[in-house]
Specification:
The chain contains eight helices and eleven strands. It has about 325 residues and is α+β, with helices and mostly antiparallel strands. A hairpin with an 8-residue loop joins strand 4 and strand 5. Helix 1 runs antiparallel to helix 2. It holds the Pfam family RF-1.
């Protein structure tokens, strides 16, 4: 029923846009016959609005994957480099949180491991909203930052790395069976803000899937039971994402444009010094306003990466008809 509703919405939207385009074309012809420039102007504005709506629909075309419409989990992990990378990881966490908020999505922090001096070692957020996974899925990979370090008394330039991993929240229509005998469950005391209770009870939960080595953890709830329930949901989602990745790799076995996801496969550079530039190394999309990008202005990068997945290495979002 959900798939049928999505198809109905898409078809009805295209039919409505087609009717609106035909009506505006007729109005232009009428305005030209009657010599009424106001009619022509109104019709031209209407066509511009249709074009803007089509641009939005263009992105929807790229989000046709099995789980693209679902909510998403996003993990941030600091790379080697101590405080520098941990600070960079916290900046990325804020960037994706701001992206979600700017796009009208709900962002929930599920787990944060604070750094020793600053920043974070890792964190997991839940991004809720239509097509959250579809929009975020191409963000998985290594992100590089080049800047004058605020932690270096000699003001030297440093390069820091952090990785992003995105996987979909699975809904009631998707069943992933995992036995308790297949996992190891550990409880520990949560860290970070949260009051006295955080430091006195083993409420945080970590689940390790033995066969795959996948580890998930949750510490945001005071109740160990609720944290365990959330961690199980995250584990099922990770296992489902692994299966999706296997299917995609099989389907794209001969597609040389496919980018491996993993440490050492850098997807984007954020340069603050000696010049200002954010560049996606897969699509070539650039921005000379790193501050805007780090404040969540990511749509152009996401859309180009989605277009590349669908249309090949040299495609960008403008190439879609």
């Amino acid at each position: 029923m959900r798939e049928r509703q999505q198809l109905d919405d898409s078809i009805n939207s295209i039919l409505a846009l087609t009717r609106s385009l035909d009506d505006n074309i007729e109005l232009i012809a009428m305005g030209e016959e009657e010599g009424d420039k106001s009619i022509i102007t109104d019709a031209e504005n209407g066509i511009r609005e249709i074009k803007a709506e089509l641009d939005k629909r263009q992105i929807e075309m790229l989000l046709s994957g099995e789980a693209d419409g679902n909510d998403a989990y996003l993990e941030v992990h600091a790379g080697a480099g101590g405080t520098e990378s941990q600070d960079w990881a916290s900046i990325l966490l804020r960037m994706y949180s701001r992206w979600g908020e700017r796009d009208g999505r709900k962002v929930e922090v599920l787990e944060v491991q604070a750094g020793e001096e600053a920043g974070i070692k890792s964190a997991t957020i839940l991004v809720k909203g239509h097509n959250s996974y579809g929009m975020l899925k191409t963000e998985s990979g290594v992100h590089r930052l080049v800047r004058i370090s605020p932690f270096d008394s000699n003001a030297r330039r440093h390069t820091s790395f952090a990785s992003i991993w995105v996987y979909p929240v699975i809904d009631d229509n998707i069943e992933v069976e995992v036995s308790e005998s297949d996992v190891r469950i550990d409880t520990y005391r949560a860290s970070g803000a949260g009051g006295q209770h955080v430091n006195t009870t083993d409420s945080a939960v970590r689940i390790t899937h033995i066969a795959t080595g996948i580890v998930v953890q949750c510490q945001t709830q005071r109740s160990q039971h609720k944290n365990r329930e959330q961690a199980w949901s995250m584990l099922r989602a990770r296992l489902y994402e692994e299966e999706l990745k296997k299917r995609e790799e099989a389907a794209n076995e001969v597609n040389s444009s496919k980018t491996d996801i993993g440490w050492g496969h850098q997807i984007r550079s954020y340069v603050m010094q000696p010049y200002q530039l954010v560049k996606d190394l897969r699509t070539g999309v650039e921005s000379t306003s790193p501050d805007d990008v780090l404040d969540g202005d990511l749509d152009e990068f996401m859309e180009a990466a989605l277009a590349q997945r669908v249309h090949g290495k040299d495609a960008d979002v403008q190439d879609i008809d």
